[in-house]
Amino acid sequence: MRFKVDMHYIVFSPVYLLMWLYTLITFIPWYFLTDAGKKKTMAKREKAKSTTGKAEGPYRCVENFDNLAREDFEGKDSLDKLFEHAVQRFGKADCLGTREVLNEENETQPSGKIFKKLILGEYRWLSYDEVDQIISHLGSGLAALGQQPKSTIAIFCETRAEWMITAQACFRRNFPLVTLYATLGEEAVAYGLNECGATHLITSTELLETKLKSILPEMHNLKHIIYVDNKSITRTGYPEGIQIHSMQAVQELGAKPDNLSIAVQRPQPTDLAVVMYTSGSTGQPKGVMIIHSNLIAGMTGQCERIPGLGPKDTYIGYLPLAHVLEMTAEISCMTYGCRIGYSSPQTLSDQSTKIKKGSKGDCSVLRPTLMAAVPEIMDRIYKNVMNKVQEMSYVQRTLFKLGYNYKLEQIKMGYDAPLCNLLLFKKVKAQLGGNIRMMLSGGAPLSSATQRFMNICFCCPVGQGYGLTETCGAGTITEVADYSTGRVGAPLICCEVKLRDWVEGGYTSQDQPHPRGEIMIGGPNVTMGYYKSEHLNNDFWVDEQGQRWFCTGDVGEIHPDGCLQIVDRKKDLVKLQAGEYVSLGKVESALKNCPLIENICAYANSDQNYVISFVVPNQKQLTILANKNGISVAWEEICNHPAMEKEVLKAIKEVAASIKLQRFEIPVKVRLSPEPWTPETGLVTDAFKLKRKELKNHFQTDIERMYGGK
After folding, report:
1. Which CATH class name applies to 576-706?
2. Where, by residue number, does the polypeptide cross the bilayer (predicted)?
3. Euclidean distance between CA atoms 342 and 319, whole angstroms
4. Could you give the CA distance from residue 378 to residue 443 in angstroms, rounded to a whole number?
């Protein structure tokens, strides 16, 4: 959503003139007190350059040009050593926090659906010393139950303190941890557990009852299930060969003197730390083999881009810990003495779906300083705030737009607008607690409009990151001082990036104005390939110097200052009947800014000459529009109404024209989906990436209809 304000009104507006006068009066002291000049110089400097002088690279960060970084703290070359180092430094300080559940209530919606609402208390904290003791007892308990060093152990659980405690216990005793997304379907979970051959599984009672119980007869290796909740479960209906324990019972077992004395076999840097199963956006999930030194190197690169990381920071953990972005972010925070408060997408803010009206969401109570988010969540925040702006009175809306545009101009010049921050954006900031000093976006490209919105309204830098599970989430991250948008920054100090020509797609290192090509990442953070799937390892290779590389399948462009921009993905490119190439990802990213669209999947057949789309509409906006058109029916009927399809197509064309999409890139037909796409529906991954195969199958009848039966 873009603001269109009468420039004549802006020039002569007393409010706008006041802002400029304030800027003029405060500019000099503010400029020096905030190091604005230094930040601007940092933003414009060369950040990475080619080691060969060639346009294709490889490109390295100028700060670590001669050698790639491998570890942050000398001698701390495995994950167990990293946490012990943190315990020695921050023992009594808060480490992991969980909110107490005071009450649960069922709330019936007008549609008849029942939603569980929570009333939550304050955060209860475990110190680094307390977490260290729990880890010791849990590790001993798992060993007493027969878990062997270098034998895999699986975790299938939601993001919570017990997840990270389990991971640290496994790292300490050299139990390779197999991670599975909590939203994976039964078939994918069964596939992963059978492939890894784990004998022990950590999970929650909810997942045990709803997803695991029915597939346990298929689990031929599983002997022990440990559930993390302080609940009792009925043992009937489970296979006889599987023992079920509470996490508390395993800790108590491990605290016994005989079990505490079980020898701890510490890992080597080259030992397997994690087998991380991807969320399966294309077919069955793949297990990525990550050794300790891979993660140490990747986190070294990530932490270098977060200035001032330390004990004064509070991080809010709510993204899936089975995703490399969240796992490395949390381990990095623990390494530097930050405290981590746990949350979930359903309890994050005061307006979240599981928070009872009038109660406080997790951000309001925790008031975090650091936060990671995927673009889907940021887009949701952006649209919610902008919808509220539209509901303001004319005067309030005009003041907000003036302040927004004024600060936008300041940010584009590398400056800030303290008066706007104080008077206009304080309430918006409060939605995330009011203390956020930096946000990190990963998982997918973030639109320029959403990035600017977060910069302006939440008054903090948004670092876009680029990386994959196969590179430990490390690749590039924008620097705090970089006020550009649409880019993902320069290579981290732990890796280098080069481009490979993709002639068929029209991307080469000789492209003007900047070299382009398929992105390859090399360095000590590149993982060891796919677990028991050597036939899939073609995208990994080792160069003459012994360095590992991974070919990402993404297409990038290197700017003159060495920063990377993601411009395409090979799998998202479709050649139309007339020969034009359409980037489906580019179309989706552009059209997500349409106020009527909550989510969108573009689709094209190579034997057709036009693009179609599937859209999850913004229910509030489309319902208002339907009522204006005299359509007062149930939500599902609104989505199936031809007139509403036309309205959404009209809005799509307006947005497409404003951002200058090519004619052949603009969807000409649309199918509206009344149900949102969530990881639970199986249509998107846990990082909210589209599962194109599943979406195609789901909308197959509509595809045939929109393509005239072909």
Report:
1. alpha beta
2. 9-32
3. 10
4. 12
pLDDT per residue as tens digits for the range 110-146: 666 778 899 999 999 999 999 999 999 999 999 999 9
Q: Which residues contact 256 (CB under 8 A, 6 or more apart)?
A: 144
Q: How far apart, in Å, are the Cα atoms of 528 and each of 170, 470, 477, 590?
A: 19, 8, 23, 35
Residues 175, 151: contact at Cβ < 8 Å?
yes
DSSP one-letter code for 367: -
Task: Name, in order, each residue with C-beta under 8 angstroms of 413's C-beta and a sequence gap of 6 or more.
Answer: none
Residue 65's φ and ψ, nearest 5 degrees, are: -70, -35
Give the tens place of pLDDT for each residue, 284-337: 789 999 999 999 999 999 999 999 999 999 999 999 999 999 999 999 999 999
Distances (CA, A) of 391 to 385, 387, 398, 431, 638: 10, 7, 12, 17, 22
Predicted TM-score of the model (pTM): 0.86
User: Please, which residues bridge with residue 340 across strands?
Assistant: 96, 315
Report the CATH fold assignment for 79-305. Rossmann fold (3.40.50)
Query: Residues spanned by CATH 2.30.38.10 within the chain?
Result: 48-67+374-569
Tell the CATH superfamily of the 48-67+374-569 domain: Luciferase; Domain 3 (2.30.38.10)
> Which residues, listed in sequence order, are joined to residue 313 by a DSSP beta bridge?
none
State the DSSP string of 622-654: HHHHHHHTT----HHHHHH-HHHHHHHHHHHHH
Q: Map tokens 């509901």 to a residue.
A: 391
Closest CA to 601 of 499, 703, 513, 532: 703
Give the H or E element holding residue 125. strand 114-127
